[in-house]
Write a structure and sequence with these properties.
Layout lengths: L1 H15 L2 H12 L6 E6 L6 H5 L6 E6 L21 H12 L4 E7 L3 H11 L9 H21 L6 E5 L7 E5 L8 H18 L5 H5 L4 E8 L4 E6 L4 E4 L2 H19 L1
Parallel strand pairs: 1-2, 1-3, 3-6
Antiparallel strand pairs: 4-5, 6-7, 7-8
Helix pairs in contact: 5-6, 6-7
Bound molecules: zinc ion.
Amino acid sequence: MPGLNRVLQGVLHYRKTVRSDLVEQFHRVRDNPNPTAVFFTCMDSRMLPARITQSQVGDMFVVRNSGNMIPHARNYGMSGFEVSVTTEPAALELAVKRGKINHVIVCGHSDCKAINTLYNLHQCPKNFDPESPMDHWLRRHGYSSIQKLERRLKSEPGLELQFTAENALLLDFKAKIDPEDKFNIEDKLSQINTLQQLVHIASHGFLHEFLENHQVFLHAMWFDIYTGDMYMFSKQQKQFLMIDEETATTLNQEVDDEIAAFEH
Ligand SMILES: [Zn+2]
């Protein structure tokens, strides 16, 4: 099979090139791994988190799925939050409680096939296949994103959408989605969905003390596959900013400001 052979050839190439360097890094971080972030992103084959962020061995946890969704705590049925049978909240708990990471990043991207499907299911509900796990997954965890998209499309581009957790003290911000109106509808939905997942994350009971004490911060990033630019959401400026030398300082300062405000 040509597809498999490409994977096998890749492993052979890896053995000849980066393997020894990686093993050295594995040894170095074995006794003292110090990951600082958990990175939720889409499983899209074009998304390469380690390369885009230049992260190294031991730097961050990565969780990937279709459409970078994190189930909301209310989706666990009768017993309510903290009862999880899905991967994402469990991974979040592992990263925060055991890994002691400080930053949770959700990263969406342009031309996301999952988001395109979510939008299509909204436009043509008859396309929903009750037998399709993917359709259920997207509709259940993308429902609130679709509602916000509707609000955005019915209004001026500069509309400020409200993103608030059940406990507004934990997460509460406004967002102007694509105020210059340069992205298509699906990409707008993808940006909204990336922010909406922060609300879902904040719904989990095990996270509340970490958020309250400013030990964990929630961030949204968005990768434009056509230009290779990475964006990060600025709560102060209420929009995604393209990450460059200038905005990186501003974005970092925002978190420092938040910590300083909490400590005073
Ligand atoms: Zn995607």
